[in-house]
Amino acid sequence: MEYTTNYNLFKPDENDFYDVEDFNLNAEIIDTKLKEIENKAESSGDAENIEYDNTESGLESTNIQAAINEICNDLMSHKAESLPHKTADGGYRWNARVNLDNSVTLVFEEVV
After folding, report:
1. pTM > 0.85
2. DSSP 3-state of 13
3. Domain count within the chain
């Protein structure tokens, strides 16, 4: 009989007879590992309780939920901005705008 790499579950060979005890031991190992994962997920709480290191992102938020909200707000504000998005070098640019109904409008514009 062979065993799995990670959790040492029984892997019967083709010629092995079925043993309900092997099956039950595998079930216990799987059940225990799933419960460990569940407990870990429950103890971490919701996204508001998970700290976020914002030193490289430029965000003001210090927890995951606030960072998600901040990014969503920035995106919605950006979507609502009118064109053109001004560039430093000027000239003609193709640009696109995602409308509130999620349709896309392509615009050829002179950027000054």
Report:
1. no
2. coil
3. 2
